[in-house]
UniProtKB/TrEMBL annotation:
Keyword vocabulary terms for this entry: Oxidoreductase
Positions of the FAD dependent oxidoreductase domain: 11-348
Source species of the chain: Arthrobacter sunyaminii
Domain of life of the organism encoding this protein: Bacteria
Name of this chain's protein: FAD-binding oxidoreductase
Length: 369
């Protein structure tokens, strides 16, 4: 990678310093010249610092489940380089009516009896939840440690990261017989690159427009979470519990509990903030269906989960504009698919054709986008 004053030349420019961009740059670093630009002063400022930190192999369509299983294997392999494990055992218990649990349960989830459900989560009021499914392969994830691992790896392998550098404009310089190059203005930097990767999260469609690329209908949806004090803390080995109708989920967070109303409300790309009335309604709901006894809200936050119309991410080269690669639309699966998706994207960026079925399922050229 060459640096001339405020001008930088690299092979692959990754726009977005969340888990998607960092995982990909980490997979590429040392193999090619990679530069990450992030608009905010810190990495992971938006959705990637606002998740529930749970990886659930039974969650999502088949291709998401496959990427989740691969991500778990890749994170377990990288954990050997870290002083503390990134993943910790934490099962996932889905509760609700017979029909909704059956519809949501798949793959790694198996049904449990009402008595088993109550043994696993005695705080539930059983009259509200006739059926349950358990995913024992699900784990908690130290997402900060995972992002820090990727940041370190990028830098150790000669990659670069520029924070506080929003991409403002771009143009493509055709190269005649040669490949052309992107010229991107980001913050004070003038960056030339062979490829630009769109890992801009909620801003992915806006970023595409800056590069004159057709938008793919990437819609951000609000999702709120809160840390609450409770009368009856959960044991450390308690499963994460989620209602199959997606009205709430919760899990232990030390002596406190993380709760979410599981809402999916469309939003503009923005620094989303919680609505006090949503948090109050959540507290009432959880107190009515469990014996946790929420006594107060310690903090709450909102992030944007960005999805396409079919709910699958968009990964791969744009079919019209040269050198523009999509890595967006991770929705509620961004951490659990991060390393698996980065592995596939890195291979594609290096001219390989890995996992044909996965590439086709996530392709920016698929029908409906
Ligand atoms: C409440 C909640 C709970 C969740 N729980 C889980 C969970 O348990 N497990 C799981 O796997 N997933 C979960 N998710 C989803 C997960 O957090 C996201 O899928 C993931 O963080 C998305 O990562 P990203 O890198 O695509 O986006 P982001 O983290 O938003 O990163 C995109 C970055 O691009 C930058 N950017 C945008 N435009 C520009 C520009 N023009 N120039 C430079 N930079 C730009 C932004 O500043 C941003 O930092 C949850 C989400 C929420 C909101």
């Amino acid at each position: 990678m060459k640096n001339r004053g405020d001008s930088v030349d690299c092979d692959i420019l990754v726009v977005g310093g969340g888990i998607a961009g960092l995982s990909l740059a980490s997979a590429l670093a040392g193999r090619t010249g990679v530069l990450v630009v992030e608009a905010e002063p810190t990495l992971g400022f938006h959705t990637s610092s606002r998740s529930a930190r749970q990886l659930i192999p039974s969650y999502g369509p088949a291709v998401i489940q496959e990427l989740t299983v691969r991500t778990l294997a890749l994170i377990r392999a990288l954990e050997v380089h870290l002083p503390e494990p990134v993943l910790t055992a934490r099962s996932f218990l889905l509760v609700g009516s017979e029909e909704t649990v059956r519809d949501r349960a798949s793959g790694h989830m198996h049904p449990v009896t009402p008595a088993q459900m109550m043994a696993l989560a005695p705080e539930l009021k059983p009259e509200h939840f006739p059926a349950a499914g358990l995913d024992t392969t699900s784990v908690g994830c130290d997402t900060d440690a995972l992002m820090e691992y990727h940041r370190r790896r990028i830098l150790d392998r000669g990659g670069r990261i520029l924070t506080g550098s929003p991409v403002r404009s771009a143009r493509y310089e055709a190269g005649g017989e040669q490949f052309g190059r992107w010229v991107t203005e980001a913050g004070e930097q003038h960056i030339t690159s062979r490829v630009v990767v769109n890992a801009a999260g909620a801003w992915a469609d806006e970023l595409a427009a800056l590069y004159s690329v057709r938008k793919r209908g990437l819609q951000p949806y609000r999702r709120t979470a809160a840390i609450v004090d409770v009368e009856h803390p959960l044991p450390a080995d308690a499963p994460m519990v989620a209602d199959a109708d997606e009205t709430f989920y919760y899990r232990a967070d030390g002596n406190r509990v993380l709760v979410s109303p599981s809402e999916s409300v469309p939003s503009e790309p923005m620094d989303a903030r919680p609505h006090a009335e949503d948090v109050a309604a959540l507290v009432d709901l959880v107190n009515s269906v469990t014996t946790l006894g929420i006594t107060g809200v310690v903090k709450s936050w909102t992030g944007l989960r960005t999805q396409t119309a079919d709910g699958l991410p968009v990964v791969g080269y744009d079919d019209v504009v040269p050198g523009f690669f999509w890595l967006a639309g991770q929705g509620g699966y961004g951490f659990q698919t991060s390393s698996g998706m980065a592995e596939i994207a890195a291979a594609m960026l290096q001219g390989e054709q890995p996992k044909k079925a996965v590439i086709e399922a996530l392709s920016p050229t698929r029908a409906g986008l």
